[in-house]
Amino acid sequence: MARTKASTKPAAAPSQPIVSSAHLVSPHSAEMSEFEFGLIVSGNAFHRWVVHCMSAAGLKDLTALDVLVLHHVTHRARDKRLADIAFIMNVEDTHLINYALKKLQGLGVVVSSKNGKEVTYGPTEAGKAYVLRYREIRDSCLINALKADDALNHDIGELARLLRVLSGIYDQAARSAASL
Fold first, then answer.
1. 167 SS3 class
2. Which residues contact residue 149 at a Cβ distance below 8 angstroms, ignoring those fewer than 6 apart?
3. Does residue 133 contact residue 58 with C-beta atoms inside 8 Å?
4. Mind listing the pLDDT tens digit for each residue in 117-150?
């Protein structure tokens, strides 16, 4: 009887989702657990990126939230109220935003102004300069490395849309869980 040569190819491992918490994987949507793990690692990478980019721009020792608040305060060259900043950034605890604003004011990159009872915040000239330098570094280190073509830019836009949709679903789920 002739012997056949044994295959040297390793057996394919069963395809399992890449997740951070296997105990949360639902038989109805393992993909959601995969998404959540991707969100965790990409969120942490994004936060690390914005801190390092702003540090390279010359503004050191900021948290990711500090950097994002500075960007938002600079956004569209309109002064913003604390409540509006928290609302747009989807930060429930306004104390976190207030702390970031005070820190940024102390660094001389954000200024507050009072109009009646309303306090608004805007960037100083120094704050605008740091944000512009951040943009230059972002273009050099991130955008140029991405080498996005029209198809990739379209996919990124769709991903952004999906993230906004899922943000609403998570917010609704949080309200439901809070009422239990």
1. helix
2. none
3. yes
4. 999 999 999 999 999 999 999 999 999 999 999 9
